[in-house]
Write a structure and sequence with these properties.
mainly alpha, EamA_dom, 77% helix, 13 helices
Length: 300
């Protein structure tokens, strides 16, 4: 059941309404692609914070500021039915765990590699329930791509790979729960509450891990920037896009994410990948595009 767009659960000031109209005016494909670029640039900026507050501290800053901004903008009502609360809580917990796993993975492996491995999650979502031979071929192509990622790279730690896989599992759940969140809430209200739940999951770990280093003015500024680039902008765009396009179309557009991550890692973080790593990324991208194009539609 959607929250009443005429009043209940809507923001109390005009900026949120303006934000909603602005998002609605952007074509869904552009929303997804801009969100991909934003989240990867944000991840690159975040990785440069690791030396000061660690990966867990960086996640805490990102989620805390994202939650603060979204809650301030949308001022969501907490009067939701039990089904809506279950979706929001599940979304928030998955969001928090996904970010923790992904940023911990980044402390061990390059950005492009981490995102490529993580992308197995969305690919699995696209193939759930399929028994066709062609979809089995996409699975083999993606698996081959992941194997190629380790070709000639002795610096790829197993811990980082496992963390990226865990983040991928959470990403798959995020897509499924994100669609449900869009159906049960309006505008950015569900995202705001879900991000608040994610903050409750991640911030205690960040404080324990980083202590007073989190409260340095320069660190707080960078943390706020990471939150905007990696959370507020892309999640808002993705959820709006999921309201307007089928999940499988969303999956096709998201297939660009590993390639964008590798390019951002190259130019921003100077993380050079070998030929086999680029081939592996193209294998995973190709498998994702193929899987989402040939998957049997499960939506109307």
């Amino acid at each position: 059941m959607h929250v009443d767009r005429a009043g209940r659960g809507l923001p109390r000031f005009g900026f949120a309404a303006l934000a909603g109209r602005t998002l609605g005016a952007i074509p869904p494909p552009a929303q997804v692609l801009f969100g991909i670029l934003s989240v990867q640039v944000g991840a690159a900026v975040a990785k440069q914070l690791f030396g000061a507050v660690g990966s867990v501290g960086t996640v805490a800053l990102r989620i805390f500021f994202a939650a603060a901004v979204l809650l301030l903008i949308w001022r969501p009502s907490l009067r939701m039915d039990r089904r809506t609360w279950s979706v929001v809580l599940g979304f928030g917990v998955v969001l928090g765990v996904m970010n923790l796993c992904f940023y911990l993975a980044l402390s061990h492996i390059p950005l492009g590699v981490a995102v490529t491995i993580e992308f197995i999650g969305p690919l699995t979502v696209a193939l759930i329930g399929s028994r066709r031979l062609v979809d089995g071929l996409w699975v083999l192509l993606a698996a081959g791509g992941v194997v190629l990622l380790t070709e000639g790279r002795g610096d790829l730690h197993l811990v980082g790979i496992l963390l990226a896989l865990a983040a991928g599992a959470c990403w798959g759940l995020y897509i499924l729960l994100g669609g449900a969140l869009g159906r049960h809430t309006s505008e950015g209200t569900g995202l705001a509450v879900g991000m608040g739940v994610a903050a409750l999951v991640t911030v205690p770990f960040g404080v324990i891990n980083s202590g007073t280093a989190l409260f340095s003015p320069s660190i707080l500024i960078l943390g706020a920037l990471v939150a905007l680039l990696s959370s507020v902008v892309p999640y808002s765009l993705e959820l709006e896009a999921l309201r307007r396009i089928p999940p499988r179309v969303f999956g096709i557009l998201m297939s660009m994410e590993p390639a964008v991550a590798a390019v951002v890692g190259l130019f921003v973080l100077h993380e050079n990948l070998g030929v086999w790593q680029w081939v592996a990324i193209l294998c995973v991208v190709g498998a994702s595009v193929g899987a989402t194009r040939t998957a049997k539609p499960r939506d109307k």
